[in-house]
Amino acid sequence: MHNKKAFLLSIGTLLLSPLVFSSQAIAQETVNVLLQEWRIVTDVKEVKSGPVKINVQNRGRETHEIVVLKTDLPHDQLPLLPQGGIDEAHTGTVIDEIEDVREGSRQSLSLFLKPGRYVILCNMTEMENDKLEVHYSMGMRQPLIVN
Fold first, then answer.
1. Total count of domains within the chain
2. Those residues with Cβ within 8 angstroms of residue 143's Cβ, 6 or more apart along the chain or in another chain
């Protein structure tokens, strides 16, 4: 009887141990992103690979967007399209984005990021007083390193 109890206890431990280890393995990184004219501020510059939550708050007066782009290019040297904005299709891999982050709003993205270099940017372009505003070119970009 003692051997049967020990055997059942061992089986139970084996069955439950993946649950213990998996809860430790899915610890989520967080990046808080603040949008303003004409900048993006993040509270961290580097996160561990895996689940990453990106919390976005727009404290500016303009509507912005957030694009998370994986690229090997420097964050401030991405090629621009003739009409302004970066060429998302040929600059790297768009992981995800939130369009139309309005003044005062908060939104979030839950992503799984692999190791590499990323850029968090606003790729909006608009005409303002007969002048083309390219949010990326005006400074709305921030690098993020994922280890």
1. 1
2. 45, 74, 75, 117, 118, 119, 120
